[in-house]
Amino acid sequence: MDFAITMTGFVALYVFMLAAFAGWVIIGGVPAILHTPLMSGSNFVHGIVVVGGIFALLNASTVLEQSIGFGAVLLGAGNAAGGYAVTDRMLAMFQVSHPHHAKRAHAKHPKKV
Amino acid sequence: MSTIIPQLIIGTTDLAAAFLFLYGLKRMSSPVTAPSGIFVAGLGMLVAILASFLYVFSVSAATRPHLAVNVGLALVALALGGGIAWWSGRKVALTAMPQMVALYNGMGGGAAGAIAAVELFGNKAQGLAQLVVTLLGALIGAVSLSGSVIAWAKLDGVIKKPLRVRGQQAVNALVMLATLVVGGYIAFVTQSGVEPLIPMPELITLFFGCALVFGVLMTLPIGGADMPVVISIYNALTGLAVGFEGFVLQNPALMIAGMVVGAAGTLLTLLMAKAMNRSVGNVVFTNFGTPAKHKLGNIKGSLKPVEAGDAGIFMRYASKVIIVPGYGLAAAQGQQKLYEFVKLLQAAGVDVKFAIHPVAGRMPGQMDVLLAEAGVPYDLIFQLEDINDQFAGADVALVIGANDVVNPAARTDKSSPIYGMPILNADKAKKVYVVKRGEGKGYAGIVNALFYGDNCNMVYGDAQAVLGKMIEAVKGLGLAAAA
Fold this sequence. Notes:
The structure holds two protein chains of two kinds.
Chain A: H1 9-28, H2 35-45, H3 49-58, H4 63-91, H5 101-107
Helix pairs in contact in A: 2-4, 3-4
Chain B: H1 4-27, H2 34-52, H3 67-91, H4 97-121, H5 127-155, H6 168-192, H7 200-219, H8 227-248, H9 252-275, H10 280-285, H11 308-316, E1 320-325, H12 327-331, H13 335-347, E2 351-356, H14 366-373, E3 381-383, H15 384-387, E4 396-400, H16 409-412, E5 431-436, E6 456-460, H17 463-476, H18 479-482
Parallel strand pairs in B: 1-2, 1-4, 2-3, 4-5, 5-6
Helix pairs in contact in B: 1-2, 1-9, 4-5, 4-7, 4-8, 5-6, 5-7, 5-8, 6-7, 8-9, 11-17, 13-17
């Protein structure tokens, strides 16, 4: 058995197409009140680039590759950690005056695309 | 095969991470579930990072001697980058949040660019398609890095004025063209095996240099008021770059996460541009936001200042008050005082609502966050389309630190740079109080006709101090506290 992933040509395009559609639809439902945490939250999500940085660094065999790979992990880790820290801080601040208002308040800001 | 188990674990965790990102973003679509949304996404990130160290089992023979050093470097980079960013993210004031997001976003773009650089310098790309995607990811990542840094510098006040020179767009186009030509040449040389005119490493460095310069040149002329849209564009671009590098590294988790952010960021950018009634191209290329227009035009009337205390008491006896907060409120750290004042009014039976313009603050939704920080429940906060019809029935519109988003010129004056932008109809209220530090203009540098209206009074002073006086005056009546 082999679990290596190979994605070429059209398979990759399908993945891209479906992911883009998913992103569009998911964000399409977010109320304006959450736009800043959302921007920061999606900023956090592309911090996954740190995993690519780790892969590149582990496979580095020259000093040049090592130093650039080090930079990639450093920056990627900053993206992920910083993105999480600010998003979490912002979201923790949202409160409701009465719990039963929560649903109503959300329904009041339907997304208009 | 000893590599099967690690492969299986990496595959499973990456799949889980991709799912958790999507599920986490979905949970962020309501304020009630949003905090758990970011936690879920964070969990996905954590397992993906931990599992990525299993790549040590699949490195090539040539890399094996360096493995111990590489693992050490990776751990140091993770601790250092993650630690500093975490610390700064926890420390930063909420008003400075937009520039922090810009900075973190630039880091992501830089990381994607760096991954591409490792691939390019190591000549690791297999086939033309991979090479082209690597170059594209490198280009977008580098532009996003340098552009985000400039955006940060502008928002942080390091760069004060938009820098514009004649023929700038032609220069930008030339730099872009140069970048593409160098990139194309790299692809050609690698594919055909022809001896390049200048050595390959220099060629790659030149490519990155051009891309970085382009990011700087593209962002420098854009006015500060447009920065939210610009950050959103770079957020989408970084996502795209990450997705492309994910394809190069054959990592579907990166591809999916990157593309989801690319699409989401694009949608968000379009929404923001729409809120300002401008196209994205208009924001990037026409360089609005200059304090160039100083003409008063056909504005009649005069500015009528009143005492803060009098305004406060007037509102205490009103039955419906709508508050329009802007960045000036946040700059004066007046949110807490504002909510204290609102609670006094509510205790006296006044119906108080907040009206938020989509582009209030320096980032879409920033005012919502700043009010939430002060403890204002979000069911008191209304967005433009939900509240705009209610101004006509309101006794008082209290405008604090906002300017351009309540400028009626956007409705009537075709020569105004903000003509056509949807605005909050504060001028339709029976009485308008504008709290402002002085007679200066807004972030976009346009004279506001609202201030000269018959129903409008100016309350000059720092927002926090003014609110303090209002609270004192209302408390002095002795009625509000008792009610």
